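Lecture 7 notes: from sequence to structure.
We start with the chain below.
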Amino acid sequence: MVKTEFINEENMEKTNSLNQLIIDLAPISIITIDKNGFITFANKYYKQISVNRSPLNKNIFKMPFFIREGLCLDYKKLLEDGTPFQKQNCASIDGSEYINIIAVPIKDENGEVTGAISMAVNVTETVRAKLQLAKLNAGLENKVKSF
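Predicted C-alpha cells for the same chain:
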C-alpha cells in the first residue's frame, strides 16, 4: 500500500509539472485573481508582455494598465457576481502592443465566485494592419475628393 501511495504522489507530481509546462508554453497570457483583486498566478507569457515581471500579490485595481484601459469596473463586477467579459484592443503602456482580454469567474462547489481567470491574446499585428488600412483609406478618400 505504501508503494501505491508513492506511485500516486509521483504521478501527481509529473502531472502537475506537465500542466505547468503547458500553461507556461501557451501563447496566451493567463492570470488568476482572487476575490479582492490580487493576482495569485501568472504564466510566463503574462510576465513577458507585462511591465510587471513579479505580478503575484499585486492588486489589479491599483495597476496602471487595468486603470487606464477601464478594466476595473469589469473586473469588480466579475468578482462580485460572476459576469464574464471581453475587452478588445487594449494597448500596452507604451502603445507598442495590443491584446484582447477574456475574463471568466472561478466558482466553488456551491457556485460562489471565489476569483477569476483572465486570458489575453496578443493581437498587435491585426491592430497594426487595421490602422494602416484605415490610414490608406483616408488617403484615398482625400485624393478622390480633390478631383
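Points to note: The longest strand covers residues 98-107. Strands lie at 29-34, 39-42, 85-91, 98-107, 113-122.
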